[in-house]
UniProtKB/TrEMBL annotation:
SUPFAM superfamilies named in the record: Homeodomain-like, Tetracyclin repressor-like, C-terminal domain
InterPro entries documented for this protein: Homeodomain-like_sf, HTH_TetR, Tet_transcr_reg_TetR-rel_C_sf
DNA-binding region(s) from the entry: 29-48
Keyword Transcription appears in the UniProt entry: yes
Single GO MF annotation: DNA binding
UniProt xrefs under Gene3D superfamilies: Homeodomain-like (1.10.10.60), Tetracycline Repressor, domain 2 (1.10.357.10)
UniProt keyword annotation of Hydrolase present: no
Protein name per its UniProtKB record: TetR family transcriptional regulator
Transmembrane segments: none
Pfam families in alphabetical order: TetR_N
Domain of life: Bacteria
Amino acid sequence: MSGRKQFDISAALDQAMRVFWQRGYPDASLDALGSATGLGRGSLYGTFGNKETLFGKCLDRYASIYGAQYEQALAAHSGDPVRAVEAFFDVVLSRIADPSVPVGCLIAQSAAQLLTLKEENGMQVRGLLDVQRQRVRAALADSSADSRTLDELATFVVAINQSLAVLSRAGTPDAELRSVARLACTTVADTLARAASEDVGQG
Protein backbone atom coordinates (compact mmCIF):
# COMPACT_ATOMS: atom_id res chain seq x y z
CA MET A 1 0.00 0.00 0.00
CA SER A 2 2.84 2.40 0.79
CA GLY A 3 4.15 2.04 -2.75
CA ARG A 4 0.74 2.88 -4.17
CA LYS A 5 0.45 5.96 -1.95
CA GLN A 6 3.87 7.22 -3.02
CA PHE A 7 2.91 6.86 -6.69
CA ASP A 8 -0.27 8.85 -6.13
CA ILE A 9 1.60 11.61 -4.30
CA SER A 10 4.18 11.83 -7.08
CA ALA A 11 1.47 12.05 -9.74
CA ALA A 12 -0.38 14.72 -7.78
CA LEU A 13 2.83 16.72 -7.41
CA ASP A 14 3.35 16.61 -11.17
CA GLN A 15 -0.16 17.91 -11.74
CA ALA A 16 0.30 20.70 -9.20
CA MET A 17 3.59 21.64 -10.87
CA ARG A 18 1.77 22.04 -14.18
CA VAL A 19 -0.76 24.39 -12.58
CA PHE A 20 1.98 26.65 -11.17
CA TRP A 21 3.83 26.42 -14.48
CA GLN A 22 0.81 27.38 -16.57
CA ARG A 23 -0.81 29.97 -14.30
CA GLY A 24 2.03 31.31 -12.21
CA TYR A 25 2.09 31.35 -8.43
CA PRO A 26 -0.42 34.18 -7.79
CA ASP A 27 -3.12 32.69 -10.05
CA ALA A 28 -2.64 29.08 -8.99
CA SER A 29 -5.66 28.97 -6.67
CA LEU A 30 -6.26 26.19 -4.19
CA ASP A 31 -9.35 25.26 -6.18
CA ALA A 32 -7.28 24.91 -9.36
CA LEU A 33 -4.63 22.91 -7.52
CA GLY A 34 -7.25 20.68 -5.96
CA SER A 35 -8.96 20.09 -9.28
CA ALA A 36 -5.68 19.19 -10.99
CA THR A 37 -4.48 16.85 -8.25
CA GLY A 38 -7.86 15.33 -7.43
CA LEU A 39 -7.41 16.31 -3.78
CA GLY A 40 -9.83 18.30 -1.67
CA ARG A 41 -8.50 21.30 0.21
CA GLY A 42 -8.09 19.32 3.41
CA SER A 43 -6.27 16.48 1.67
CA LEU A 44 -4.12 18.99 -0.20
CA TYR A 45 -2.99 20.58 3.05
CA GLY A 46 -2.60 17.20 4.71
CA THR A 47 -0.46 15.83 1.88
CA PHE A 48 1.68 18.83 0.95
CA GLY A 49 1.20 21.49 3.62
CA ASN A 50 0.23 25.02 2.61
CA LYS A 51 0.43 26.57 -0.86
CA GLU A 52 3.94 27.92 -0.30
CA THR A 53 5.23 24.49 0.73
CA LEU A 54 3.55 22.82 -2.24
CA PHE A 55 5.06 25.42 -4.57
CA GLY A 56 8.51 24.75 -3.15
CA LYS A 57 8.08 21.03 -3.76
CA CYS A 58 6.98 21.75 -7.33
CA LEU A 59 10.06 23.91 -7.93
CA ASP A 60 12.23 21.06 -6.67
CA ARG A 61 10.38 18.61 -8.90
CA TYR A 62 10.81 20.84 -11.96
CA ALA A 63 14.49 21.37 -11.22
CA SER A 64 15.09 17.64 -10.78
CA ILE A 65 13.50 16.82 -14.15
CA TYR A 66 15.05 19.51 -16.31
CA GLY A 67 18.17 20.08 -14.27
CA ALA A 68 19.18 16.48 -14.92
CA GLN A 69 18.67 17.01 -18.66
CA TYR A 70 20.76 20.19 -18.62
CA GLU A 71 23.47 18.44 -16.65
CA GLN A 72 23.60 15.54 -19.10
CA ALA A 73 23.69 17.82 -22.14
CA LEU A 74 26.47 20.00 -20.76
CA ALA A 75 28.54 17.06 -19.51
CA ALA A 76 28.25 15.15 -22.79
CA HIS A 77 30.70 17.50 -24.51
CA SER A 78 33.57 17.75 -22.08
CA GLY A 79 36.39 19.78 -23.59
CA ASP A 80 34.12 21.46 -26.13
CA PRO A 81 32.36 24.32 -24.32
CA VAL A 82 30.66 25.69 -27.43
CA ARG A 83 29.12 22.33 -28.29
CA ALA A 84 28.08 21.96 -24.63
CA VAL A 85 26.21 25.27 -24.78
CA GLU A 86 24.59 24.22 -28.05
CA ALA A 87 23.43 20.99 -26.41
CA PHE A 88 22.10 22.98 -23.45
CA PHE A 89 19.97 25.12 -25.75
CA ASP A 90 18.82 22.00 -27.61
CA VAL A 91 17.31 20.77 -24.35
CA VAL A 92 15.74 24.17 -23.67
CA LEU A 93 14.18 24.38 -27.14
CA SER A 94 12.95 20.79 -26.97
CA ARG A 95 11.15 21.55 -23.71
CA ILE A 96 9.62 24.69 -25.20
CA ALA A 97 8.44 22.77 -28.28
CA ASP A 98 7.00 19.87 -26.24
CA PRO A 99 3.18 20.08 -26.58
CA SER A 100 2.67 17.87 -23.53
CA VAL A 101 3.90 20.52 -21.07
CA PRO A 102 2.95 24.17 -20.50
CA VAL A 103 4.72 26.85 -22.52
CA GLY A 104 7.74 28.58 -21.05
CA CYS A 105 9.67 27.69 -17.91
CA LEU A 106 8.44 27.42 -14.33
CA ILE A 107 11.63 29.00 -12.96
CA ALA A 108 11.56 31.89 -15.45
CA GLN A 109 7.88 32.51 -14.70
CA SER A 110 8.53 32.41 -10.97
CA ALA A 111 11.51 34.76 -11.26
CA ALA A 112 9.32 37.29 -13.07
CA GLN A 113 6.82 37.07 -10.21
CA LEU A 114 9.42 37.19 -7.45
CA LEU A 115 7.75 40.07 -5.60
CA THR A 116 4.59 37.97 -5.16
CA LEU A 117 6.43 35.03 -3.59
CA LYS A 118 7.10 34.32 0.04
CA GLU A 119 10.70 34.98 1.05
CA GLU A 120 11.60 31.29 1.24
CA ASN A 121 10.20 30.58 -2.22
CA GLY A 122 11.95 33.63 -3.64
CA MET A 123 15.27 32.45 -2.24
CA GLN A 124 14.62 29.03 -3.76
CA VAL A 125 14.01 30.51 -7.22
CA ARG A 126 17.17 32.61 -7.02
CA GLY A 127 19.07 29.54 -5.88
CA LEU A 128 17.85 27.49 -8.83
CA LEU A 129 18.94 30.21 -11.24
CA ASP A 130 22.36 30.23 -9.60
CA VAL A 131 22.62 26.44 -9.91
CA GLN A 132 21.87 26.78 -13.61
CA ARG A 133 24.58 29.43 -13.96
CA GLN A 134 27.07 27.22 -12.10
CA ARG A 135 26.34 24.31 -14.44
CA VAL A 136 26.99 26.44 -17.51
CA ARG A 137 30.07 27.99 -15.92
CA ALA A 138 31.53 24.54 -15.27
CA ALA A 139 30.98 23.57 -18.91
CA LEU A 140 32.86 26.69 -20.04
CA ALA A 141 35.79 26.13 -17.72
CA ASP A 142 37.84 24.09 -20.21
CA SER A 143 38.97 27.12 -22.18
CA SER A 144 41.72 29.68 -22.02
CA ALA A 145 39.40 32.57 -21.21
CA ASP A 146 39.89 34.33 -17.89
CA SER A 147 37.51 33.77 -15.00
CA ARG A 148 35.72 37.08 -15.42
CA THR A 149 34.95 36.35 -19.07
CA LEU A 150 33.66 32.88 -18.23
CA ASP A 151 31.50 34.27 -15.42
CA GLU A 152 30.01 36.81 -17.80
CA LEU A 153 29.37 34.18 -20.48
CA ALA A 154 27.65 31.86 -18.00
CA THR A 155 25.35 34.69 -16.89
CA PHE A 156 24.72 35.56 -20.55
CA VAL A 157 23.72 31.98 -21.42
CA VAL A 158 21.32 31.80 -18.47
CA ALA A 159 19.85 35.18 -19.43
CA ILE A 160 19.21 33.94 -22.98
CA ASN A 161 17.62 30.78 -21.58
CA GLN A 162 15.22 32.82 -19.47
CA SER A 163 14.50 35.13 -22.42
CA LEU A 164 13.60 32.15 -24.61
CA ALA A 165 11.06 31.05 -22.01
CA VAL A 166 9.48 34.51 -21.89
CA LEU A 167 9.40 34.83 -25.68
CA SER A 168 7.81 31.40 -26.03
CA ARG A 169 4.99 32.39 -23.68
CA ALA A 170 4.42 35.43 -25.88
CA GLY A 171 3.92 33.16 -28.89
CA THR A 172 7.25 33.72 -30.64
CA PRO A 173 7.64 31.11 -33.43
CA ASP A 174 10.06 28.24 -32.92
CA ALA A 175 12.22 29.36 -35.84
CA GLU A 176 12.82 32.73 -34.19
CA LEU A 177 13.63 31.13 -30.85
CA ARG A 178 16.18 28.88 -32.55
CA SER A 179 17.68 31.92 -34.25
CA VAL A 180 18.17 33.58 -30.86
CA ALA A 181 19.83 30.42 -29.53
CA ARG A 182 22.13 30.21 -32.56
CA LEU A 183 23.22 33.82 -32.13
CA ALA A 184 23.87 33.16 -28.46
CA CYS A 185 26.06 30.17 -29.33
CA THR A 186 27.91 32.28 -31.90
CA THR A 187 28.57 34.90 -29.24
CA VAL A 188 29.95 32.26 -26.90
CA ALA A 189 32.13 30.80 -29.68
CA ASP A 190 33.44 34.20 -30.78
CA THR A 191 34.21 35.27 -27.22
CA LEU A 192 36.09 32.07 -26.43
CA ALA A 193 37.97 32.21 -29.75
CA ARG A 194 38.99 35.81 -29.10
CA ALA A 195 40.21 34.83 -25.63
CA ALA A 196 42.24 31.95 -27.10
CA SER A 197 43.76 34.25 -29.71
CA GLU A 198 44.74 36.79 -27.08
CA ASP A 199 46.25 34.04 -24.97
CA VAL A 200 48.40 32.88 -27.90
CA GLY A 201 49.45 36.46 -28.65
CA GLN A 202 50.52 37.02 -25.08
CA GLY A 203 52.38 33.71 -25.08
